[in-house]
Amino acid sequence: MELLLLLTVLLLAHAVAYLAWAAAVRRRQSRCYLLDYVCHKPSDDRKVTTEMAGALIERNPRLGLSEYRFLLRVIVGSGIGEETYSPRNIVDGREDAPTHQDAVEEMDAFIDEAIAELFGKSGDFIKPQDVDVLVVNVSMFSPAPSIASRIVRRYGMREDVAAYNLSGMGCSAGLISLDLARNALRTRRNATALVVSTESIAPNWYPGTDKSMMLGNMLFRCGGSAVLLSNDPALRGRAKMELRCLVRSNIAANDDAHACALQREDGDGRVGISLSKTLPKAAVRAFTVNLRTLAPRILPVTELARFAAGLVLRKLSSSSRKHGGKSEGPKINFKSGVEHFCLHPGGTAVIEAVKRSLSLDDGDVEPARMTLHRWGNTSASSLWYVLSYMEAKGRLRRGDRVLMVTFGSGFKCNSCMWEVKGDMADKGAWADCVDDYPPANTANPYMDKFGWLNDVEGDTVML
């Protein structure tokens, strides 16, 4: 009897020890470290200056004075400067008849430069042959073989690399790819993942006159990012940040939200991306859904308790009043759990909507505004330009928490929080201009050069 009891105790002890060991292994494998990242800086001869933009619009014979005035209002209020980049075919004046090769060359320019730069920075400990997982997202271009296959071939990656190629996911694809890479790493021990985000602008210029579809021409610009991740504890000392949580939300079941950013044909059969006036509203709604899950994961218990108590008091006070207007409800102080806000620079309206929703100040949204001004909306890679701005400015300190928020067609809102683990002092793509930001005045010169359009009478005008 005593022997049986002893064996039982030993078995239980062994089971507990095994479960503890298994839990520790799962925790180690669930770690996701940001080893390094690179934001692509295209060549200067691809910059969209005021003169180039004017010539580009003038080349379109379908546009009249009404469209000129509309485009002028959009670009003046866009928050975009004169340092953004376009694909080569648009620079060369071939936007009306793009070829498949134009799209391929746009991708290759990014692949050959940005990914090579990333491995150049990390080559002493991570080489292309060390990559176990590759996740690529390009929403508007899906050739065969895939972009992921081109990267595997270009950099001679291993035959067993797990390669994923995402398309059609919009500006939120960067964090979707991050989530996919993190989950793939969880099934592997001491593994490395490469996440590549870019967008295809070359074949997707809209040449028509539908104003909701002309907006995309004004906002989207060339760019891209390459991000190196790992769950290897041995690389923790080299990591810049560690991923703490990631939340994805999709409100596509709502018809208005689903249609607010939609690729479609106009009345003349020309294809483009339609951006409706309901987009900021959809972004706020998707963000609200996302925050319900995100807030409890990133905010301290004291802040959650304060907010809950405020709701209870408001309900009690409103029920005790017979007359009078509604009192303003309590607001969550997100700064109690986050030091830095890395917001998707999808446009001034989106940035302002998130700013109001989180009760942020101008300093909190400065990185997003400056990224929009310098780079435009580079789609899924935009968040990494915002993060790079923070790093270039020397604002990220060990222990700081960084909240990333992005939006995309569908309509989707994705968010994640990082904790800074190492020194972050790389100026990256901002190296040659970060000291000039923020400028005293972010107004672009379009109104100065083309404001006379508002004084023209008639329907015909020459730029």
Explain this structure.
Belongs to the thiolase-like superfamily. Chalcone/stilbene synthases family. Keywords: Acyltransferase, Signal, Transferase. One of its GO terms (cellular component) is membrane. Residues 26-316 form the FAE domain. By secondary structure, the protein is α/β, with parallel strands linked by helices. The chain has one domain: Peroxisomal Thiolase, Chain A, domain 1, CATH 3.40.47. The chain is built from 15 helices and eleven strands. The longest helix has 29 residues, at 2-30. The model is unreliable at 15-26 and 459-463 (pLDDT under 50).
Number of helices: 15
Helical/strand content category: alpha/beta
Order of strands in the sheet with the most strands? 3-2-4-5-1-6-11-10-9
Profile the largest sheet.
Answer: 9 strands, mixed
Helix proportion of residues, in percent?
40-55%
Rg on CA atoms, Å = 25 Å
In CATH terms, what is the architecture?
Answer: 3-Layer(aba) Sandwich
The CATH superfamily appears as Thiolase/Chalcone synthase
DSSP strand tally: 11
**CATH level-3 fold name:** Peroxisomal Thiolase, Chain A, domain 1
User: CATH top level?
Assistant: Alpha Beta
How many domains? The number is: 1
- What's the SSE pattern? HEHHHHEHEHEHEEHEEHHEHHHEEH
